[in-house]
Amino acid sequence: MIQKLLCIRGPLRERLDPYQQTLSKQFSSQSQNEFAISFNKICALIQTSLEDDKIIQLQPDFLSLNQNFNAALNRDLQQNQVQQQIQVKELEYQLTVHTTNQNRLKQQNAELEMTTKDLQRLLLTLKQDFDSNLKVKLEEQTEHLNNSKNQLQDQLAQARFALQEMQNEHETCPQKISELETEVRVQSDAKIQNQGKIVQISEKLESEISQKQQLEAHCNNLQANIAQMQKQIEELELRLRNIGQERTQQLSEQQKQLRSIEDYQANNQLLNQHNSQLQIDLESAKNSIQQKQEQIIQLQQQLENHRQSAREAAEKLQSAIQGAQIQEQQFQKHLFQSQEQVKKLTAHTQQFESIKAELIESQKQVAIHTRNLDQLKLKMQLVQQQKNETVDQLAKTQQHSNKLQNELDEWKQRSLQLTTNLAQVQSELQAKAAELIKSQAENEFTIQQLKQREAEAQNVKIVQDKSDQQAKMKQKIAQKNKTIQQLVEHIQVKEITHENTQMYLNCKIELLSKQTRNSQANSQLAELKQIITEKDKQLIQHQNSIQQLQSELKNLQISYEQLKTTSIAQITSLNAQLSSTQQELLIKSKENESQIESLNITLQSTQNQSKSQILQHEQNLVQMKNLNQQFEKLLNDLKKENEDLKTELQLNQMDFEMKEQDFETQIQQLNNKTQNEEENAKLLNEAETEVLKLNQEKEQLQNEKQQLQNEIIKQQKEIQVIVNDQNKMSEQNDKMQKEIDKSNKKNKENAERQKLTEENLKQKNIEINQLQNAIKDSEIKMSEIQKQLENKTTELKNALKIVKDSQKQITELQTTNQKQVSFNEQQSTELNNLKQQLKQSESKITSLETTIKQYEDDKSTLQKQIQRNEKEISDLNAQIGDLTQTNDEIKNKLSTVQQQLKISEEQINDIKKLNDKPENIDEIGEQ
Question: Number of folded domains in the chain?
Answer without folding.
Answer: 1
